Amino acid sequence: MSQEINTEKIQQKKTVNPLVSLLPIIVLILMMVVVVILFGNDALSGGSQISLLVSTALCICISLWYYDIPWKQLENGMKDTIRDASTSIVILLLIGMMSASWMICGVVPTLIYYGVQIVSPVLYLFVTCIICAAVSVMTGSSWTTIATIGVALIGIGTAIGIPVYWAAGAIISGAYFGDKISPLSDTTILASAVADVNIFTHVKYMMRTTLPSICITLAIFLVAGFVLAAKGISVDVDEFKTVLESKFNINPLTLFVPVVTGIMIAKKVPSLITLFLSSVLAAVTALYMQPDLLREIAGDGCDGWQQLAKGTVLMLTSETHINTGYEVLDDLVSTGGMFGMMKTVWLILCAMCFGGVMVASGMLQSITKSLVSCITGRRQLVGSTLLSGIFMNLLTCDQYISIILTTNIFNDAYKDLGYEKKLLSRSTEDSATVTSVLIPWSSCGMTQAMILGVPTLLYLPFCFFNYISPLMSFIYAWFGWTIKAPSAKPSDTVNE
Hints:
α6 (142-159) runs parallel beside α21, α7 (164-181) runs antiparallel to α20 (421-435) and α8 (186-194) packs antiparallel against α20 (421-435). This protein has helices spanning 18-39, 47-65, 71-104, 107-118, 124-139, 142-159, 164-181, 186-194, 199-231, 237-247, 256-266, 271-289, 291-298, 304-317, 327-333, 342-360, 363-372, 378-396, 399-417, 421-435, 443-452, 456-459, 464-479. It contains 23 helices and no strands. The two termini are 24 Å apart. By secondary structure, it is mainly alpha-helical.
């Protein structure tokens, strides 16, 4: 994904003060805390958006009247970040369409039906993490992995009595492992390109911190499976299967849809095309396999082909509520379509506005550069890079922007201290890529919460891989493992 962020054309008559720059951030954090207290899991329904807009307004006021920064510069900053997020927004809408069509056409119910008969509750978390990791490595996309196999796996977990927050943690941990180390991943490509490191050198170097992180994660999920099983799981799997059969046409033929989708991914068909074609194929399958459900969605007022057409359009675009008579299953098979993603789109736009003015005003750079000036050694260097990746995710709400800004800010520091560029690219990915999904108002956090139906703050404690990764990277830096001693002349790792 191409991202262009120009941090050099910032014009102001006064030097940006890091302490003043912290004011919008402090206001945002305080307002977010209040929103979570007041609204809880409904924080994305408007409170978070207002918090971001108020913080954006404060940043603009400081920029205009204290630093004399031209309004056009701030406006362009917002436009640039929203433009960079536009592809992600379209992908998000298509994911909503695809997830709904996969559910109604029978793909997800069929996977759940057979999955509950195969997967053991004890090994569920362990196996789920491995499956999502494998799929993500092959696709290079955590979003696609979670929107497809992730949705089915969380349904299986619900059917066998696994708490949804544990299931979401295993799914996200596995998906972001693949997103982080796959050569097909856009974040992997971006991090290596911005740091000017050969992508395979970058991946190989990352494996030294990533493999221990995923191994520890898998061990935690394995132990957790035994603990959860020991507490007892009171779910009638046979009843779950019976209800599924009564409402959906459970047929292995529906799995033709994910097979074709997998082929398109393997052929490296662009994400937008893959998601759209997969949705169309699922809609056609629904017309053939689940006509009664489409009629139920359409309701009264028309019949025949018009009722089927109306049901198909509503399935793809609107919220649907299928009444199965089984409460747990009702929540699981309900879909939001493209409309269900609108809260997330709304929040992304507000978040991009905040990130755009923070960058355009120079406030973000002033905070991070003040930290860089205090760096004198390896531990401080890597630690600051890791913190910057997380900090950028908090403020810019976008992992791509975080990767670019973090790399650009610390590039000279790594050169001056004589450390390899691949250490910079690894440290950036060990933080910016994996922690984005842990932030409720980031594009990743909002998207996965909507897809899985689990609030970010609920699944956050169970995404072990996502916070073990930056911790592992810092441990390696603390002891100097896999890190070459500073050279008199910084080495060029591009041709390694």
